[in-house]
């Protein structure tokens, strides 16, 4: 794939 | 009618393990599908370079070979040059929108930090809250990551643009009506004597085999993508029994079970293609020797090869543009969430600032 992956960013991180 | 709304809730460790397992699965699927697609690209490239199947269809020397006509129709049906031109035009706007959201988000952090620093300079120790600069480090790190991603996207846009520039002329020709296409392809002496010759029949059969191998790949891709499984129970069990989760072992074990057979089928398919392509290349050499080429025939062949390549390029560019458009749209959603995080924290800081100012004025 040509464009960067956004998979990591789609996961909602737990807000502290 | 009781439903447990906490049914899906799992211990943090399980949640993290599930997330990693999901990544591993995505990687494996991506690799498998990637090698299938690579094989198809390779196959198409080899055929185009040999002017197959056009060369064995082209026995009149002046009409448009059937496979080229089909490629032309396929490209026209998908919207031709216009549809990709439009998508290419849209890319800079999509990029800009994303840049603006990111810039705006970081700006409100900067502005609040500036005010906070001014007040700290004014009140010194009495302004005793955590400096904004310290508080905003994680968000700014996220912002820097987004910038990185946008920079990479800009490079990807360039690649697509260059691909388009390289091939747009031939793609435009491929989109012309049959009569125009016909006149644009140089004529050559008909090779009627080759019709029915053994090597042509052999090539036809080999090309059909190759087609079947390609179709198998399409089916394989669908099957591979359809595999689903849930590691939750395994992880919960491991946690309960051992107090820990050996995620890597458990996941790779499950992936072997689920995808092992597919991996083998993919390997087998790739080997079959390798074999048949080698055979095709040998047959093509025989064919070329029989064909008695001259300048006209060579010119004609060159144009036919370029037209076949133009079709493949069109497919690739379309796919790139769909990917790029989706990328920018998905990123916008993510950046809007980021923007909300920034405005939320700045709002909280402003509220806190007002309260601190009030206290300081009273004291």
Helices, strands, pairings?
The complex is a heterodimer of chains A (16) and B (363).
Chain A: H1 7-10
Chain B: H1 12-49, H2 54-57, H3 66-77, H4 80-123, H5 132-135, H6 137-174, H7 178-184, H8 198-226, H9 232-242, H10 247-290, H11 295-362
Helix pairs in contact in B: 1-8, 1-9, 1-10, 1-11, 3-11, 4-6, 4-11, 6-11, 8-10
Question: What this model shows, in words?
Answer:
The complex is a heterodimer of chains A (16) and B (363). Chain A is mostly helical. Chain A has one helix spanning 7-10. Chain A starts with 6 loop residues before the first helix and ends in a 6-residue tail after the last helix. Chain B contains 11 helices and no strands. In chain B, 25% of the residues are buried. Classes of the chains: A mainly alpha (16), B mainly alpha (363). At the A-B interface, α1 of A face α1, α6 and α11 of B.
Oligomer: heterodimer
- Strand content bin of chain A: under 5%
Rg over CA atoms of chain A: 11 Å
Largest protein interface, residues of each chain: A-B, 9 and 16 residues
Average pLDDT metric of chain A: 71
**Any low-confidence stretches of chain B, pLDDT <50, length ≥5?**
none
Global morphology of chain A:
rod-shaped
Record field, number of beta strands of chain B: 0
Order of helices and strands of chain B: HHHHHHHHHHH
End-to-end C-alpha gap of chain B: 59 Å
Question: Structural class of the helix and strand makeup of chain A?
Answer: mainly alpha
Give helix and strand order of chain A, one letter per element, not per position. Answer: H
Mean pLDDT of chain B: 94
Distance between the termini of chain A: 34 Å
Q: Uncertain runs of chain A with pLDDT below 50, 5 residues or more?
A: none
How many helices of chain B does DSSP assign? 11
Estimated radius of gyration of chain B: 30 Å
Largest sheet of chain B: none
> How helix-rich are the residues of chain A, as a percent range?
25-40%
Percent strand of chain B equals: under 5%
Mind summarizing the main beta sheet of chain A?
none
């Amino acid at each position: 794939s040509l464009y960067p992956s956004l998979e990591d960013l789609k996961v909602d991180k737990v807000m502290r | 009618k009781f439903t447990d709304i906490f049914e899906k809730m799992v211990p943090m460790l399980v949640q993290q393990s599930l997330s990693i397992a999901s990544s591993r699965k995505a990687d494996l699927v991506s690799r498998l599908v990637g090698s299938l697609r690579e094989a198809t690209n390779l196959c198409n490239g080899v055929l185009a370079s040999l002017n197959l199947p056009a060369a064995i269809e082209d026995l009149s020397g002046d009409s448009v070979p059937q496979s080229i006509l089909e490629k032309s129709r396929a490209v026209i049906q998908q919207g031709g040059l216009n549809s990709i031109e439009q998508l290419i035009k849209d890319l800079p706007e999509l990029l800009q929108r994303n840049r603006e959201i990111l810039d705006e988000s970081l700006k409100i952090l900067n502005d609040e930090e500036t005010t906070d620093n001014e007040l700290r300079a004014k009140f010194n120790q009495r302004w005793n809250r955590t400096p904004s600069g310290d508080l905003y480090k994680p968000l700014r790190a996220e912002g820097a990551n987004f910038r990185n991603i946008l920079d990479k996207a800009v490079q990807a846009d360039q690649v697509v643009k260059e691909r388009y520039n390289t091939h747009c002329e031939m793609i435009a020709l491929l989109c012309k009506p049959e009569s125009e296409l016909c006149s644009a392809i140089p004529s050559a002496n008909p090779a009627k004597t080759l019709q029915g010759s053994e090597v042509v029949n052999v090539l036809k059969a080999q090309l059909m085999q190759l087609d079947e191998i390609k179709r198998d790949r399409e089916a394989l891709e669908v099957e591979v993508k359809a595999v689903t499984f849930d590691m939750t129970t395994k992880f919960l069990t491991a946690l309960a029994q051992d107090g820990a989760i050996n995620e890597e072992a458990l996941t790779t074990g499950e992936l072997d079970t689920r995808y092992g057979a597919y991996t083998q089928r993919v390997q087998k398919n790739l080997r079959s293609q390798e074999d048949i392509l080698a055979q095709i290349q040998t047959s093509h050499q025989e064919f070329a020797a029989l064909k008695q080429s001259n300048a006209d025939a060579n010119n004609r062949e060159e144009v036919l090869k370029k037209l076949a390549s133009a079709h493949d390029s069109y497919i690739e560019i379309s796919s790139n543009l769909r990917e790029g458009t989706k990328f920018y749209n998905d990123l916008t959603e993510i950046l809007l969430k980021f923007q909300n995080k920034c405005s939320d924290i700045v709002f909280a800081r402003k509220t806190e600032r007002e309260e601190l100012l009030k206290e300081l004025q009273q004291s």
